[in-house]
């Protein structure tokens, strides 16, 4: 199903079973879709809501759907291919893991179980940019299944990160975080290794073995200097998040880890 925000009233797509037309942002369009056509997706078990600049193929997507259902994910996203433009380095594929359970799933390409989507669909109407929802959703659906990033499958984000109005985006981010009393801090709580299939849990103080695997499988961009390396460390040592500090805005990366082909 295609949520179309363009101006061509006669636009058609041979691959779309249904086209929903709404001029506005992704989340404004999806909110209108859920109000108008929620019944159309009621028989689906999982629903993926990617941005329009995500590149993948049918086989990868089908296998991803099968995997998240088998592993009982309530909310998940495929990881980003190493060539991708990215805003959060956490979302880059970590080849040491099959998946990482996190407190964050990016609004760029979230996949919901039907039950989880029903729980959070009201949030679509409260935002234009979606900023902050990726921190708010996990807590709301955690009782329904796993939440995290699936490293076994990756997709390519093909365009630089951007926003038509960053002032609105930052405002919405802080409003959402304040509403749920959250920080813009990403934590990896548990992960399954891709080799032996062993699960490592972080715990409040962190788990050295989990961090060792994280470093081994992470993309070199995550270890290129002390600052980025410390960012990786923070994700796997939760107590670093409990220190009192003023929340600092996270930075958007405007460059891919290597040139797009």
UniProtKB/TrEMBL annotation:
InterPro entries: DUF707 (IPR007877), Nucleotide-diphossugar_trans (IPR029044)
Protein origin, superkingdom: Bacteria
SUPFAM superfamilies listed in its UniProt record: Nucleotide-diphospho-sugar transferases (SSF53448)
Short name of any one Pfam family annotated for the protein: DUF707
UniProt name for this protein: DUF707 domain-containing protein
Lineage of producing organism: Bacteria, Pseudomonadati, Pseudomonadota, Betaproteobacteria, Burkholderiales
